[in-house]
Design brief:
The structure is a single chain. The protein has helices at about 45-50, 90-95, 95-100, 105-120, 135-145, 165-180, 190-200, 220-225, 230-235, 235-250, and strands at about 5-10, 20-30, 30-35, 60-65, 65, 75-80, 150-155, 185-190, 200-205, 210-215. About 40% of the residues are buried. It is of the alpha/beta class. The mean pLDDT is about 95. It has 10 helices and 10 strands. It has a domain at about 85-150. The longest helix is centred in the last third of the chain and has 18 residues, at about 165-180. The structure holds adenosine-5'-triphosphate and magnesium ion. Magnesium ion binds near residues 43 and 44.
Length: about 260
């Protein structure tokens, strides 16, 4: 099974204080790992290391035991603000990697349609990007990442720019897409409820230097996938308790 590892990584930007200190994190292909923590604690830096955009100052990033030396097709990244190509159709955006790889148009289109279906945009392949809403564009970004059939999906606050209703719908979509593809996922969010709802494991980071202070296995997303309603899950005593517990960890509040 695919395995992404951050092995005792430290990171220091040139001339600055250590941003990450001796941090270790393992992600397996069937996990949905969500990272939360205060602003500036190093979440994006962690994701950039996993993506291979940055190299650690010490320690190693490994995929299946092999050191990561840069970005690669095995790790797809989704950013908060979609970076879609406005001059291409929705389908051609989704199939962009296939286009670069020289795959024939008909085959690209079939692939794009498959992933547009997964993100709930079936039938919109011919639309120009400018005719899509913000939430739809974010889904195109997700479809494009999934279409590359990565082993890992890395997302930095992918739902941060969406309104509350769209955001909740997108959470379900992320869960379903993960359930269908079982791509190992690392997602960063500011939303504690979002973290609990999506994750198989929540990681809490603390700042200066960025480090992991809490690891929490949860099963709320699996309850959702098994058919329980979002409302019932989020109102359940176990969810509310986990939320308070996480907030305590993030803000170092004293337990009452
Ligand atoms: N390219 C850079 N050069 C120098 N310092 C940086 C750089 N990128 C980030 N930092 C610093 O590293 C620290 C961690 O930043 P990072 O962006 O990883 O935090 P974050 O947890 O993602 O924050 P947020 O929740 O606000 O997105 C911050 O103090 C930030 O100022
Ligand atoms: Mg960030």
């Amino acid at each position: 099974m695919a395995h992404l590892q951050l092995d005792s990584v430290s990171l220091r930007y040139e001339g600055g204080a250590p941003v990450l200190g001796n941090l270790s994190l393992d992600i397996r292909a069937d996990e949905f790992v969500v990272v939360v923590g205060r602003s500036g604690c190093g979440k994006t830096s962690l994701l950039n290391l996993a993506a291979g955009f940055l190299a650690p100052s010490s320690g190693q990033v490994l995929v299946d035991g092999r050191p990561v030396t840069g970005p690669g097709a095995d790790r797809a990244v989704v950013f908060q603000n979609d970076a879609l190509f406005p001059w291409l159709s929705t389908a051609e955006n989704v199939a962009f990697a296939a286009r670069l790889a020289g795959i024939a148009p008909a085959e690209r289109r079939a692939q794009a349609d498959r992933y547009l279906d997964i993100v709930g945009l079936a039938g919109l392949g011919d639309r120009p990007i400018w005719q899509l809403s913000g939430g739809q564009r974010q889904r195109v970004g997700l479809a494009r990442a999934l279409a590359a059939e990565p082993r890992f999906l890395l997302m930095d606050e992918p739902l941060g720019a969406l309104d509350a209703m769209t955001r909740e719908a997108m959470q379900d979509l992320l869960l379903e897409a993960w359930n269908r593809t079982r791509t190992g996922t690392l997602l960063i969010t500011h939303g504690v409820e979002e973290a609990l709802y999506l994750a198989t494991r929540v990681i809490v980071m603390a700042p200066q230097p960025g480090r992991i202070v809490r690891r929490l296995e949860v099963d709320f997303g699996r309850r959702r996938l098994a058919g329980e309603s979002a409302r019932s899950i989020k109102a359940s005593p176990s969810f509310v308790a986990a939320r308070e517990d996480l907030l305590d960890s993030i803000f170092e509040r004293e337990a009452a």
